[in-house]
Amino acid sequence: MRKNRILVVLIWFFLLVLFFLQNSYKPIIVLSFFSIILIIDILLFIFSAKKYEVSTHLKSEFLDNKKISGQLTLKTTNRFLFNQVIVNYMLVNQLTNETIKKQVSFFNLKNNDETLNFQLESEYSGKLRLEVESIRFSDFFHLFEISGIGEISEEELVIYPDSYHFEITPPNFLGDANQTSLVINQNRAKQGDMFDFKTYEVGDPVKNIHWKMSMKEQELIVRELSEEASHKQLILLETNYLTTDSKVSNRSIHALVATFVSTIETMVKNNQTITIGWLSQTSQTIQVETISSKENLQLIEKCLADISYQQADGLVWHYFKDYITQVNYSRIIYLHPDLTRGNFNEFPQTFPIAIGENSNALPNTTHIHAEHYEADIVNLII
C-alpha cells in the first residue's frame, strides 16, 4: 500500500514538472519549488509526529445483544496541519479469544482532541480488553511513516452472562429425554450477583437441574462441585466431541475450561485435594496431576496447554475408564459437552452419559446441563 502511494505521488510530481516546463519555467525554479514543498512536508511531519497520544474508554450496553460502546480519543498539541494519524485497535475476549480488529484515521488535527465513538458486538460473555495495537503517523504526501509513537492504551471490561435456571420434570426422571419438559427462566446478570438455585445433598436422585453461578474473578464458578469434600477426587475435562458448528464448539469448550479452572481453584481454597486428568495432545496418552495447594495451581496451565481438542466422541473417558478402575476414587467429576448428540458405545452401562440416554443411570448421580453454554457437568458418586 505504501509503495502504491509513493508511486502516485511521483507520477503527480512528474506531471506537475511537465506542466511547469511547458509553460517556459526554468528547470531550476521548478526543482526549487518542489524541493521547498518537500522540505516543508518533512519538517511538518517531524515536528508533529511526537505530539499525539491515544486514550480509550469502554462501556457495556445490554440491548438486544452484547453490545459494547467504546471511545477512542486522539489528543494532540500539534500546531501544524497536513498530517495523518492511523490508529489500529482491537477488542479481545480473554475467555474465548474472540478478536475484533479495526482501523481508524484522523486527518488534519490542530490543537484539538478528537473522539471516535464506535460500537462493537461481542458474541460471548467474558473479559474484554480494548487495546490500541499501533499508531502510525504519516506526512501529507504519505511518503513517510513512523510507527509506535504515542501512548499505547488498553482498557478492560467484564461482560457478564445471562443466567439460566433449568428445571426437569418429573422429579425422578430417568426416561426418554424427548418426553421431558424443560422450563427455562432467563435473567440478566449484573456484576456481583450470585444466582443461588436449589441445593442438593450427595446421594439425592435427580430432581432439578440447579447450579450456583458467579462471575467472581471473571470466571464461571460451579460451587456445588466443591462444597462436598471427599477423600479422593478426580476431575476430568472432556473437550473432544463431534460438531460442525464452530460457534457452538468455541462456546462449549471455553465454558468447560472456565468451569474446570474455577472448580479446581475453589476446591483448593477450601483446602481440598483434587486430581486432574486430561488427554495429552502430543502423546495421546492420559496425564494425571494432583493439586493440593495454591502453589500447585500452575499445573492447570500445563493441562490447558497440552489438552487435545480433536473432534471425536468421548476420548477422555475412553482413555481413562481403565485407569479409573485401578484407583479407588471416592468422587469423579466429569466435565463434558452435550453428550446427547454423539455415539458413546464406549461408555460403561453404569455411567450416566446424559439424562435419559441410559436406563441404568445411577440414582445418586447429579447431572447438570447448561443450555446457554451447551456444557454438561456430571458429578458421579461411586
Runs in which pLDDT lies below 50 for 5 or more consecutive residues are 160-228, 338-382
- The average pLDDT is 56
The rounded distance between the terminal residues' Cα atoms is 65 Å
So how many helices? 6
**Based on helices, strands and strand pairing, what is the structural class?**
alpha+beta
Strand residue content = 25-35%
Main sheet attributes: strand count, strand direction, barrel closure: 6 strands, mixed
Report strand order across the widest sheet: 13-12-11-14-16-15
Could you estimate the helical fraction of the residues in percent? Answer: 10-25%
Task: List the domain count as a whole number.
Answer: 2
Number of strand segments: 16
Attribute tags:
disordered C terminus; alpha+beta; single chain; 6 helices; five-stranded antiparallel sheet; Immunoglobulin-like; 382 residues
